[in-house]
Amino acid sequence: MNTRIDPAALEAAEAAPPSHDASDPTLLARMIEAGILVETGEDGIYGRSAAFEDVLERLSVAVTLLGADQNAEVLRFPPALRRRDFEDSEYLKSFPDLAGTIHAFQGNDADHRRLLAALDATIAAGDGERSDEWMDQQKPTRLVFTPAACYPIYPVIARRGALPEGGATFDVFSYCFRHEPSVDPSRMQMFRMREFVRLGSPGDVMTFREKWIERGSAFVKMLGLPFDIDLANDPFFGRGGKIVANSQREQQLKFELVIPVATPGRPTACLSFNYHMDHFGTLWKIDCANGDVAHSACVAFGMERTTLALFRHHGLDVRAWPDGVRALLWGDTQAAIDAALR
Ligand code: 5GP
Ligand code: ZN
């Protein structure tokens, strides 16, 4: 671990068991076999059973309690962004390969006939490789999929005018889309992300991030999971991407809490702690009360990944999970969180 962050903030992380390769590449098959996840035929898109959703929702309740002192404004959006906001966000500079745009039929009767003819040809291919010719009739809508839960909020906050004195904190939750089909269950194409987002002065947002590295670590320790805090290695696109990734690491803009889940030889980022500097503040023209450009930071909880990590380490039968974890998720969650925060 290499960090310029206050060492006290990382105390909880250092007290945790050392990370070792406890990843299990058979996890997805076992969860499907047990009916906890449901195959759709498409890598990275799974149905969730009641057992999976129960754990995920209880985790979400625990995250809410973990952040209860943040005075965060709850904001929920459907998993789509205005295309124009997405264009302005610069996401396509970094991750053009992950973005998902939304298209729809917007033609006339003749176009409809062309659509149906192309569709007949597609379906005639049966189980073979299908043509995508019918999609020629699909045109861009004004929407794209949300790539990260915090994206919809910046333009909305900007429209409100300057931040209040002391900045502002938001609690967001969204299904997110990333086009990266994979047989690794911890790399889904659609997954839920829970975030707390802080906007304010550089000092405010750095303090927030340190607090959440500490809190996130304490939380995952309570969940009985082995983890490490590492500098992140985001998959920035293209040849220039390597330079951006190096700069992100040099400036320590992003840390991740990693847990061995299903990827052989590599633990999976289940929480991330991001410092955006004034990137979003400048893009969206968000100012602090004193007129300075707002800095921002966010802590993101990968809900599916953390749920998968629990099934990986504690087994597929939740009734057999360790007492402490059961007490946290199915018992007096508030008391367990209060104890951890003390
Ligand atoms: P980030 O924006 O840092 O890439 O993602 C934030 C969090 O979302 C990650 O820490 C992780 O927990 C979750 N996440 C990112 N990508 C994926 C993915 O492909 N599948 C799933 N299930 N979760 C992801
Ligand atoms: Zn975020």
UniProtKB/TrEMBL annotation:
CDD domains: Gly_His_Pro_Ser_Thr_tRS_core (cd00670). Residues 1-24 are annotated as: Disordered. Residues 7-18 have a biased composition (Low complexity). This is Amino acid--[acyl-carrier-protein] ligase. It comes from Caballeronia glathei.
